[in-house]
Design a protein that fits this description.
3 copies of one chain form a homotrimer. Chain A is α+β, with helices and mostly antiparallel strands. In chain A, 22% of the residues lie in helices and 36% in strands. The longest helix of chain A has 14 residues.
């Protein structure tokens, strides 16, 4: 049984969606030891998200940001949680819709992602700073 | 290898979002035995959800309820699943958008949540009653 | 410790939501060996999703398709990722909102789903073809 955990601090990125697959795997050489298992990636914040989507065409990430900005508007008149700025409450809602973690199968030492899949960091604040993620690898 | 499972019945709560982190950890003393692992929390219902978000300010939970009531309207003219009342089909949709489970890393006997993170029970029915959750702790 | 993985190719289905619980369990006789654990089901595509919802009444699946078609419109004027057709970018967004995987507790050799819960395949393309899923069973 392999049970490995790492805590990583991501570089600060601008608001939007960013691929972090390579950063995750580069920090997890222990992946090679796992024949069968799962990798859990968790973000320790409530205004940023993790999801899995198309890695090849950057316009998908552009369209994600545009769509979610319309689906979750800033300055909704019924918002009460407004002290931290107009981007804060929408960031919490986007984080909940997209999720705080992804779990990915591991097969023969590699993430068993589909051909077009990558891990998206959703940075939903205008100035979110550096984010912490926790990687937990379970398997054999 | 530690492999522990508990089934818990939550108290009935009003429609909206509610913190259940303390209830989960209070019922899982086995957490202390895990140096590295994950806790999976699963809700056995299709009209309530689990998610992770801001625990400190209750206005965030208020704004969640207001937002999702607007994002998923009751009485949409195209709904066919209407026999159980106007809150039922929206509850299914909210549950799918937010999710039926959360997975949280465990580090040195504690949930590795960020400073501001808590586990939200989303009760999406007007009278959902008591809900069942299943906790599964895997690690070493 | 049990650590089993299977890769399955699903039959092609029309755009919409489809139950795959029975197909998953039929391909996983190893479930019977697990007293306590989790099953992770992962879809290796970025325009189809997995979620958990109501299995008994097919009108719920109808209403899901209708709702998500309205929540994520085709031909949004700001979309840039449009080369693969009007259903493509919405499919990526629906996949992100609903998720690429579900994790389900396993208890005494069976999925610990609630009475009304089933696994939904969300096929978000008009002609998505056959999809690959990866099942990872961890437990004891």
């Amino acid at each position: 049984m392999i049970c490995v955990q790492k805590r990583l601090r991501l570089p600060a990125v601008r608001r939007g969606f960013h691929l972090i697959t390579d950063l995750v795997t580069a920090n997890l050489p222990e992946l090679e030891q796992v024949q069968v298992g799962t990798l859990h990636v968790f973000i320790q914040h409530t205004s940023a998200s993790l999801s899995i989507n198309e890695k090849a065409d950057p316009t998908v990430r552009h369209d994600f940001e545009q769509f979610f900005n319309r689906a979750v508007p800033e300055n909704a008149p019924y918002f009460r949680h407004t002290l931290e700025g107009p981007d804060d409450m929408p960031a919490h809602l986007k984080a909940a819709m997209l999720g705080s973690s992804v779990t990915i199968p591991v097969t023969k030492g590699e993430l068993a992602l589909g051909t077009w899949q990558g891990i998206y960091l959703g940075e939903h604040r205008n100035d979110g700073g550096r984010r912490w993620i926790v990687l937990t690898l379970l398997g054999a």
